[in-house]
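Structure ticket #2291
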Amino acid sequence: MPWIGVEAEKVEKKKFGETVLRYGLTVFGEIEVEIKTSRGWLKFIVLEVGGFVEGLARDLSKLFDAAAIEAGPHLILGEPSAKIWDEAVKVVFPDGEEEVIPVFTNDSFLDVRIPNERIKGVKGSIVVGGKKYELPLTPESLIEIYTKGEELFKKVEKAASVYGISSIVSAEALKALREKTKAPPRYEIDYDAGLALIYEKNRIKTVNIIAFLLDLLLKGFEQEALKIFEKAPEKLKIRIREAVKEEYEVY
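Resolution: structure written out below.
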């Protein structure tokens, strides 16, 4: 949904809203965000709107003598058909200078939308099993996904390995999952083959060591993951660090 916004505390919200309506836009919601610009962090009142916003930030910046932002389809960076792209905002300053700043990454392989370090005040999302969840996942959301089955939970694991565990799962959710799962599975590690052998009822499942270690972390079994990591060959340790993006202090 397109955004149009103006620097907070520079304009009355009511006046800003009335001005936006005069441009023929439909307002669906209001949020406050902070954007890291070349001039530092700036806070904006942002209206989520329906309609065409390209060029409107320039008009509003002149009108209110304040920084203004816009976001919409014209600020998609990359090609959505490639399955991964960025969304940007355009910031226009009162002196006429402009900046295009990427603030979200969209990954349609994993159905994830993640805010980056240049924006505050918004949350990401992930779609699992046809349902959209806010990120980082709450205890209720993570348990709900976990109880739906291993295949759906793997999507959370993959997203965590790509974008960092703290971006995908809250600390409270990890704790809740640990309490539900209670104990780690029985397993053996074959470092030479790079596999974990997991004993499940009447069968043995084999998975990549890194995938298994990440699964342990997501379920709150940090000490089990640490033991696997400490015994791993140095080359594998490097790969593990890269895979989980060094999100955990145990590494």
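Closing remark: The first helix runs from residue 13 to 22.
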